[in-house]
Amino acid sequence: LDKCETSTTLPKWVEDGLPLLFALHYTNEEIKVYNPSLSGYIPLLWNRANSSDGPIAESISLEEMEVSGNYPSNSWTGRYYAALAVEYMVYRSSAQKVYVDFVKDIYLKGWKQSFQDNIGLSVDQFYSDFQSYVIDSAAANIVNSNWKLDDIDITAVSSGGSSSNTAPTINGLPNSISVA
Q1: Closest Cα partner for 72 from 62, 83, 86?
Q2: How far are the Cα atoms of 2, 21, 58, 103 from residue 18, in angstroms, in the given order?
Q3: Residue 173, H or E segment
Q4: What digits encode the pLDDT tens for the residues 99-149?
Q5: Phi, psi (5° rounding) for residue 7?
Q6: Mean pLDDT of 87-98
Q7: Do 88 and 94 contact (CB within 8 A), yes or no?
Q8: 17 touches 82 (CB < 8 A)
Q9: FRET pair for 109, CA 20 to 30 Å: which of 2, 103, 120, 143?
Q10: How far is the C-alpha of 30 from the C-alpha of 90, rounded, in Å?
Q11: Alpha-carbon gap, residue 11 to 106, rounded angstroms
């Protein structure tokens, strides 16, 4: 098969952050069920990540959160921090690149190369930039979450730079197993 990976392991923060951010965004955009005293979900993510048992207070970096054993003592605050990192990915690129192109390219390129091609930074540079972002006391105001779910076209061909834009499939599903 013409792909780089037959299976891949995403960092735990990516695995947790992608679906949680999507769910929070859906809730905020479509259902409008969130704490009315907060102006959307970014302050919610920031408050949870910055709680006394969260990754910011415990000085846990995204790099350390690549494996679940390094999550903060309250794993939910780690998930909110992960979602904040994914929102920062969207801020640095776009919802389309994060939720479609990055994901589609993982099997072709591996997660780190897909990340660099679609987010526009190496993983190490992203970790450094995100760390600077969370240290800034006004970080909750830096990211302006103005993307909409309708901005994501799941039928689009990846623009991540590969000549082959579609991962091989088995019965329409990504091939994540080795076939003898």
Answers
A1: 62
A2: 26, 6, 22, 10
A3: strand 173-174
A4: 999 999 998 899 999 999 999 999 999 999 988 887 765 455 555 566 777
A5: -155, 160
A6: 92
A7: no
A8: yes
A9: 143
A10: 19
A11: 12
